[in-house]
Amino acid sequence: MPRKLLIVGLLLGSLSLSGCSVFYPNWGATSLPTESSLPAIEETDSQATSSEGASESQTPEPVESASEEPAPTQEPKKETTVEIIMAFVDDGAGYLTVVAQLPDIVEAGGECTFKFIGGSVTKTLSVPSEPSSDYTQCHPIDVELSELSKGEGVVTVSYSSEKYLGTSAGTSVVIP
Questions:
Q1: CA distance 140 to 104
Q2: Which of 31, 42, 114, 169 could potentially form a cystine with 141 if both were Cys, beta carbons 3.0 to 4.6 Å apart?
Q3: What are the distances in angstroms from CA 89 to CA 18, 92, 143, 172, 174?
Q4: What distance in Å separates the CA atoms of residue 156 and residue 141, rounded to the nearest whole number?
Q5: What distance in Å separates the CA atoms of residue 172 and residue 176, rounded to the nearest whole number?
């Protein structure tokens, strides 16, 4: 009997801990993002390049340094897929929570924009994104239910970065 109790206890403990993965923002991540994907590293590299140019000229001129950096030619942004993984109403906590990801790209520095349309209310909210091991995920979006109209509504998430843009399909939610 104690052996069965131990097995049942271990099984229940495992199931309850596996539920924590639902709230972890990097589902399926197998490793940490590489340092080369962090925006701070890229800024440091550009600062090092401009420092090298200043040491070579010996006479830094602000006008020349501004003209040395020609306006980058903007390539058209590539279309990417945005998927809403979950959009659920937590009536007890009073929040609508939306989690979205971009399965086709891995990059830092993008922005996810949540949009709710329901009744006479249109609510938008922007959050940053972060790279994971093989996709990019929007930070979880929490919106107070008091800011949304009661009844049926549609949620979309748009993504924009220097290289990519995309918008998810609409997901229906019911605000109590």
A1: 19
A2: 114
A3: 21, 9, 10, 11, 8
A4: 11
A5: 13
Residue owning tokens 């950096």: 69
pLDDT digits (tens, 9 = 90+) for 96-114: 999 999 999 999 999 999 9
Output the six-digit token pair for 15: 């199931």
Domain ranges of the chain: 35-68, 78-175
Report which of 106, 95, 88 is spatially closest to residue 26, judged by C-alpha positions: 106
User: What residue type is assigned to position 87 of the chain?
Assistant: A
User: Which residues neighbour 108 within 8 Å (Cβ) at sequence distance 6 or greater?
Assistant: 33, 37, 38, 39, 129, 130, 131
pLDDT digits (tens, 9 = 90+) for 15-71: 555 554 444 444 444 443 444 443 443 443 444 444 444 444 455 555 555 555 666
CATH 2.60.40.10 matches 78-175:
yes
